[in-house]
Amino acid sequence: MKVLITGTAGFIGNRLAERLLERGEEVIGVDNLNDYYDVTLKEARLAKIKDHPGFTEARISIEDRPAMEALFAKHKPNKVVNLAAQAGVRYSLENPHSYVESNIVGFMNILEGCRYNGVEHLVYASSSSVYGANTNMPFSIHNNVDHPLSMYAATKKANELMAHTYSHLYDLPTTGLRFFTVYGPWGRPDMALFLFTKKILAGEPIDVFNYGKHRRDFTYVDDIVEGVIRTLDHTARPNVDWSGDKPDPGTAGGPYRLYNIGNNSPVELMHYIKVLEDCLGKKAEMNMLPLQPGDVPDTYANVEDLVADVDYKPDTSVEDGIASFVNWYKSYYSQA
What we know:
alpha/beta; seven-stranded parallel β-sheet; 11 helices; 13 strands; about 15% strand
């Protein structure tokens, strides 16, 4: 199988490419290596896979329409996984245009590439942030998600709507995956675990928003990747019982599916920090701050559909996951 993966220098995309190459797939990896965060880290991720005989690198931006059209026409992938995106809730308050360019225009180019090149299945990253102002937990894919609280969340909801349209119009199987607070080795430097670790080791105070009253469904990166692979292998199909009288947001009359991929076990932020302190052997100094614009107090994934359809439920504990991250962090930066 030939799989086109966007975001192969990224946190999740790189691990997914590794896994698919290990099982013998051919991977075409797309990434522009932008400077949203440390490019050296992105290059180090790519170094793990770039010499694999099954890997082909394409260093382009998904918003570059001619380049993406040429890439699809040349490689004719069987399946596509879109993980490239402008990430970050708080950054979307500062630079909203970059989210439209990457997450909307770029995703449009992905959909068109799939449409015109006979792609069998498109799997794409959505986000738990689409639940926005929802407070009915655990969050279910069958709930309405019309109240996003950040531009990032709005673009991810837009991706789901765009995919639905292509599934309906062109019978393109699409599966959207709502990831819940991904963490682990090779993670992003702008995310909490990375920031906390760096500052605690440096003896600097960490910023703890919402006065530490957050609860997050922290999900280990390998659990996320396993969920991506299982859904990639399970091509989306129409819901034959779908009705416009009582429309189900999580399925459709066309080959369209949504899934939550989360640990189904929300953890209090203060416990998360305590586990990190134990792994580092060092206490954190904390700046207790209010809830940030665009942020939500709690996330909690209902994964019943993921279990029912692909027989999978993430289960890595934060104790094991944080320990793995800390071991990687110390090793990576001691070598650097």
